[in-house]
Amino acid sequence: MLIAGGCRLFDDPLIPATIHPMSEYPRVILAPQRDVSVRRRHPWLFSGAIKRVEGAPQPGALVAVYSFEGTFLAWGHY
User: Fold this and answer.
1) What per-residue confidence (pLDDT) applies to 12?
2) The model's pTM
3) Separation of alpha carbons 56 and 6, rounded Å
4) Is the dihedral of CA 6, 52, 15, 35 positive or negative?
5) CB-based burial label for 66 (10 Å; 0-12, 13-18, 19+)
């Protein structure tokens, strides 16, 4: 699995968190210490970085990406 489409970080002014209530979207929870690439604005995640997926996103669905500690990091496409 690959999350592609250029993850948008929490501080991206183009997609403020207030536009999309995070509770309505599936969540991708990263494995411990796998949030570094997202914080450096790397545009995708590989399956090895993902600890679990909450919800049942369809291919291409918008998902909220969280660190293992529960910090919202980015919006991405599943």
Assistant:
1) 53
2) 0.73
3) 21
4) negative
5) buried
